[in-house]
Amino acid sequence: MSKDCIKIADDYTGYALSNFCVPRHYEEDLENVLIPWGLIQDRTERLARDIFQDIRDEPLTALCVLKGGYRFYTDLLDKLTTLNRFHASVSVQLHVDFIRLKSYENDDSTGDIRVIGGDNLSNLRGHNVLVVEDIIDTGRTMSRLLAILQKYEPKSVKVASLLVKRRPDSTGYRPDYCGFEVPDKFVVGYALDYNEYFRDLNHICVINDTGKAKYKIQQNSH
Ligand code: HPA
Ligand code: MG
């Protein structure tokens, strides 16, 4: 069952950078703080509780989609293991695995994807799988990943995504567990990157034009 998401409105301006601690090296590159780290933690705690209550007493294989999902994944699993410690009568045994997705073509939104890394996916047969992702953009990547995973005949597959972007070209895909629905802006931090930068930022922030220009991939001039 798809649960409610915290919806962040299009005209929401977030917090000024000066209200929070942001690394000196990114101060000029960000528009605002959209979701402070503390709020991510509080929301993740609730998602962990929802997952725990839904799965109760069955083992779960938590599959992290790298690299963007790694911080959400570790915080979510920390909170699930805390629930396991605090509940005497129910518990969810956790298995961990990590994958990366590569697109066959350059263009992520049209190309097919391929799963790299991780254990042999045949290990998923008969398991309850929870895919943990940082952001659902158009929804195409996730639909393709789910189609791939289904071939390995897991017992069930659910998806937890910290963010879902409101995009005009969305396929309409909704994850089972969603942290925040965000405006169609490029967000970075908390492991979400722009060309591999900003993963070392705690808060989820909107990148500005200075940041986009500074960390743009340089085209070869010859
Ligand atoms: N930020 C980082 N990675 C992304 C985004 C975003 O806004 N959308 C899709 N991948
Ligand atoms: Mg991702």
From TrEMBL:
It comes from the Eukaryota. Its EC number is 2.4.2.8. Its main location: cytoplasm. Residues 41-194 form the Phosphoribosyltransferase domain. Keywords: Cytoplasm, Glycosyltransferase, Magnesium, Metal-binding, Nucleotide-binding, Purine salvage, Transferase. SUPFAM superfamilies: PRTase-like. It is found in: Cytoplasm. It is an enzyme of class 2 (transferase). Its cofactor is Mg(2+). It catalyses: IMP + diphosphate = hypoxanthine + 5-phospho-alpha-D-ribose 1-diphosphate. Pfam families: Pribosyltran. GO terms for cellular component: cytosol. One of its GO terms (biological process) is IMP salvage. GO terms for molecular function: hypoxanthine phosphoribosyltransferase activity; magnesium ion binding; nucleotide binding. Pathway: Purine metabolism; IMP biosynthesis via salvage pathway; IMP from hypoxanthine: step 1/1. Belongs to the purine/pyrimidine phosphoribosyltransferase family. This is Hypoxanthine phosphoribosyltransferase.
